[in-house]
Amino acid sequence: MDRAAGNQPPPQQEKHMVVDHFFAIGTPHANSGGACQDYARSGLVTADLAVGAVADGCSGASANTEVGAQAAVFAFERALLPYRHRPGGWFDAPFAEDFLAAFGASRVSPREDDYLASLVGFAATSREAAIYLFGDGAIALRYTDGRHLLIEIEWPGNAPYYPGYSSRPEVRERFLAQLSDPYAAVVQRRTEFVAGDGGVTTLASSSETRSFEALERGAVIRFQPADEQIEAMAVITDGLARIGCLSAAEAAAELLAFKNHRGHFVKRRCLRALAALRRGGHLLGDDLAIAGVWFGSE
Predict the structure, then answer these.
(1) Given Cys at both, which of 69, 128, 148, 157 links 39, Cβ 3.0 to 4.6 Å?
(2) Which pairs with CB-CB distance under 8 Å and at least 24 residues apart come from 76-85?
(3) pLDDT digits 0-9 by tens, 71-113
(4) 3-state secondary structure of 298
(5) Contacts of 30 (CB under 8 A, 6+ apart)
């Protein structure tokens, strides 16, 4: 028997993915006439596969690391293409070797230090998402119930192990020798919070150490957006923690406060948020790049 009209269940909202990115020069580089050393790209590879990546060129290298940041992002895209039909397994072995090979083949500058850049990239469908992180950076999630999760990777002295070191054995050995404890070389911080008119309220925070060996060829972090009720996911360079006097969680809340999820939703939100923060005296203390995907309902 058909249900009475008044007893029909509410229609399910359509789920869809939208992907976008944004990058901006920090105040120190802008004031000195320098280049933006962060870079981002994103796109839909197929109707149900979103891809995005950000890269952060080393500011302390006294080199043209904007070249390396762009090279890292394009190398990530090239290395990913052969794996695009492997949901959830995009970054399984030998992806790391393919990425490093593509990165090494993308040289347009003869100077090795131009290629000192971290990378954080993702591949995602509505059911499976994986993030590949080589160096430092951050991951931010927004859930349907209003919670946020921020994951940050921090190396000692803010000096990460860059993909460009992998082809230079002498640099690798020197980097490894400088670590006080290779078995606990990196700190991975997790902050769960909610954001409202009164600011950010931390629900839980934790940290764990990761070994150099675990991150030497990049780390993979996996999520299941539909099952975990994740409506938005973003990868962000470490400029996130250098926006005025905001904490990284406060900055992430601002950048992920999407109101409209169509088209260039990341660009619109970042431009609006950074303008408002600038009026409040919170300037970009470093370059910033972000790539995000929206999984939720419109």
Answers:
(1) 69
(2) 76/102, 76/119, 76/121, 76/132, 77/41, 77/51, 77/53, 78/102, 80/45, 80/51, 80/121, 80/123, 81/45, 83/123, 84/45, 84/46, 84/49, 84/123
(3) 999 999 999 999 998 988 999 989 999 999 999 999 999 999 9
(4) coil
(5) none
